[in-house]
């Protein structure tokens, strides 16, 4: 478990590129045969990747959580960004094709990741997002395209995108987690523009379907003190509540967005007009 301690916006002007990447960019999450996680002290979120690589892969009990099992006091959202796979939770098998989202509630004791018996070439790759939970909600699976769909942006401004909300106040019930997937249309590269902040939640982005020779430039920081991260395929960004977030790619891409914090209202955000960015 990689520990990422909380940061203040006052620190940002003093960070060089290496320091920014060390604190806010999570790399190497998807390693065959492993569960890799990072614990950020911003809203005590844990994000990670699980790649079964042909063999069942149990969710470990990380010592840093000081818990009997991972979800003893937590909930988790899982999105499969690879080939078809299964997640077995306390004996119940959930089949997740590419793009499917599974919610596991507090108290789920045994979690095992695996490739589906007739899975796609390349195998499953599960993205994990976990936050503390005060009560237990039932596990629930939603397939790609079955969430609450929203069409956003405009092709004229290169930000036409399809957004699917999966775990949210009008969808899969959770204590804190709000989670979904956004796909940019061909010819569009900007996401979340105009940029915004939401002081009541931390948000994490997992960028995927980024071509090998492409990158996403992720904007962060305060509106008058912006910085950027250059992000490759299947890398994640931790965006503290005080940081704006937006990004532009050198090609179309997708991303899993996931939030945890004080409320679950998707539209609780403070827009930042592009004309005031510095």
Automatic annotation (TrEMBL):
- Swiss-Prot/TrEMBL cofactor(s): Zn(2+)
Q: Give the pathway.
A: Glycan metabolism; pectin degradation; 2-dehydro-3-deoxy-D-gluconate from pectin: step 4/5
User: What reaction gets catalysed by this protein?
Assistant: 5-dehydro-4-deoxy-D-glucuronate = 3-deoxy-D-glycero-2,5-hexodiulosonate
What InterPro entries does the record point to? KduI, KduI/IolB_isomerase, KduI_N, RmlC-like_jellyroll, RmlC_Cupin_sf
Gene3D superfamilies cross-referenced by the UniProt entry: Jelly Rolls (2.60.120.10), pectin degrading enzyme 5-keto 4- deoxyuronate isomerase, domain 1 (2.60.120.520)
Q: Which domain of life is it from?
A: Bacteria
Which BP terms from GO are recorded? D-galacturonate catabolic process; D-glucuronate catabolic process; pectin catabolic process
Q: Which SUPFAM superfamilies match?
A: RmlC-like cupins (SSF51182)
Q: Provide the protein name.
A: 4-deoxy-L-threo-5-hexosulose-uronate ketol-isomerase
Q: Quick one: which residues bind Zn(2+)?
A: 196, 198, 203, 245
PANTHER family, alphabetically?
4-DEOXY-L-THREO-5-HEXOSULOSE-URONATE KETOL-ISOMERASE
Q: Which family does it belong to?
A: Belongs to the KduI family.
Quote the function comment for this protein.
Catalyzes the isomerization of 5-dehydro-4-deoxy-D-glucuronate to 3-deoxy-D-glycero-2,5-hexodiulosonate.
Its gene name is kduI
How does the cofactor bind to this protein, according to its record? Binds 1 zinc ion per subunit.
- Kindly name one Pfam family recorded for this protein: KduI
Keyword tags: Isomerase, Metal-binding, Zinc
Q: For this protein, what is the EC number?
A: 5.3.1.17
